[in-house]
Amino acid sequence: MNNAVLQFDDIDKYFGETHVLKDITLNIDTSEVCVIVGPSGSGKSTLLRCANRLEEIQNGEIRLDGQSISAVDADVNRLRQRIGMVFQSFNLFPHKTALENVTLAPRKVKNLPDKEATQRAENLLDEVGLLEQSSSYPNQLSGGQKQRVAIARALAMEPKIMLFDEVTSALDPELVGEVLGVMRDLAGDGMTMMVVTHEMGFAREVGDRVVLMADGRIVESASPTSFFENPSTTRGKQFLSKLL
Amino acid sequence: MADSYSGATSDTETDTDAQTVVADDRFFDDTVLRRVGVAVSSLFALGIILLLTYILTSQISYGLIPTILPQFIGAYGLVLGIVVASSVLSVTAGIFVGLARVSKTNITRGISAAYVQFFRGTPLLFQIFVIYFGIPTLWPGTFPIQGWGLPTAILSLTLNHAAYVGEAVRGGIGAVPDGQMEAARSLGMGYVQAMREVVIPQAWRNALAAIGNDQIILVKDTSLLTVIAIPELIQQFRDVNSATFDPWTPLLLVAIAYLSITVPMGRLVEYLETRADWGGDTNE
């Protein structure tokens, strides 16, 4: 409990009348890779978007390192600096080069000097294998390259936790591997990660815990081995049987 | 460009929709269509060239030009000054109108919508009259501003065109995907910062063609200022024409004057568009 980086404390979320997240309680520990799986419409992406307050919750509390994110007076801009997010549709800034995409927030939000921001961005682009593309615009990159730049962009703010929202779903199958590879390295470096995905291979191999969501609830939360070999709920069994 | 376009479409049409196109194809196949196009446009150009040649050789009193040139140059300078001032002011104001139009605050959004409705919905000529004749009468006593014509000119053009620029900016912002704002905010940027760094540069590019179009119209709108006796280009035409009964000589100078502003402006917009190319295709 003391170790938790991100805590969801009994939260509820409504879109108008629709109750999309129901009594969600979830703690994500330091260096844990928590993989959220579930059928579409189960609320997994919404849960992730609540974590950095792209969506508001109606009940409960979300805390980052013990500080409330969901409180009315929370300093969202400051808290979001410590939460990296990567989107399904990349959302790279098309008017900026790969390098500028990565340096923008450190320069403008953290007021890092240009030289230092560039240095750091080049290291990050090197880590995701894209140093040579640093002066390319997003339009000139493949989907997999775009997503790796997006990961570097999020990492440039030195976040405590990284949120991945179905980051491989918009990619051509042959490009999925390069993005998952970067995520695997990141997990290996001890990054705390919350990953919404349909990639069960990744969940099994890299995940420390698999959380199954259905109809806005967490129905199962287990280690990958026990979840995939021996799911304890019928929903879990159903979900896995449909994958085969 | 016209070639490749007509070629490309009719290829696919004949492949996919042979039934309906067959009848047309007999008379209007690619080659025929292309020849008709060349013939019609050439005839049109030829007609214009003949007309122009006739006017330039028989209707222009070249001896008159040195006499009237100074007043046209003066008017040209004045129009250019009015255009530069109103352009800068209307684009600046228009950006704020556009931002207000997408505001989440009802009051701001409502007022800016009403502003646009009024200034886009009434003629510029009417707005010029309201400012030139209407405003001074509201003053208790004598209106303090001498030479209210020039301020009226800049004010009316600015207010009118800020409405159009505002709509172009609103459209430009609307065309930026929501994910851009979300990505910027998720990095810890505030709303204003995200707008400035991420959304507006993209919205600007989206709106550029529409704004450029509007600013070219602004140049031509200065001609309306003749009704409040601003010594602009049309006013010079009227002076010369009523004194000499020669329409074509002053008309020629008016045409040259307007085109020498609007054509470079069109080029400038094209240049700005290609500069904001961002390594290729328009959309991500």
From TrEMBL, chain A:
Pfam families: ABC_tran (PF00005)
Domain ABC transporter, chain residue ranges per copy: 6-240
One Gene Ontology term of the molecular function aspect: ATP binding
Signal peptide location: none
Subcellular location, record wording: Cell membrane
Keywords noted in UniProt: Amino-acid transport, ATP-binding, Cell membrane, Membrane, Nucleotide-binding, Transport
Keyword Transcription: no
Membrane topology: Peripheral membrane protein
GO cellular component: plasma membrane
Main localisation: membrane
Recorded superkingdom: Archaea
Similarity annotation: Belongs to the ABC transporter superfamily.
Name listed for the protein in its UniProt record: ABC-type transport system ATP-binding protein (Probable substrate glutamine/glutamate/polar amino acids)
Automatic annotation (TrEMBL), chain B:
Domain of life, per lineage: Archaea
GO BP, sorted A to Z: amino acid transport
Membrane topology designation: Multi-pass membrane protein
Coiled-coil residue windows: none
Entry-linked PROSITE patterns: ABC_TM1
Recorded GO CC terms: ATP-binding cassette (ABC) transporter complex
Subcellular location: Cell membrane
Alphabetical UniProt keywords: Amino-acid transport, Cell membrane, Membrane, Transmembrane, Transmembrane helix, Transport
Keyword Protein transport (UniProt): no
Any one Pfam family match given in the protein's UniProt record, by short name: BPD_transp_1
Transmembrane feature ranges: 36-56, 76-100, 112-135, 248-269
Gene Ontology MF term list: transmembrane transporter activity
Main location: membrane
InterPro entries, alphabetized: AA_ABC_transptr_permease_3TM, ArtM/GltK/GlnP/TcyL/YhdX-like, MetI-like, MetI-like_sf
ABC transmembrane type-1 domain location: 76-269
Entry similarity comment: Belongs to the binding-protein-dependent transport system permease family. HisMQ subfamily.
Protein name listed in UniProt: ABC-type transport system permease protein (Probable substrate glutamine/glutamate/polar amino acids)
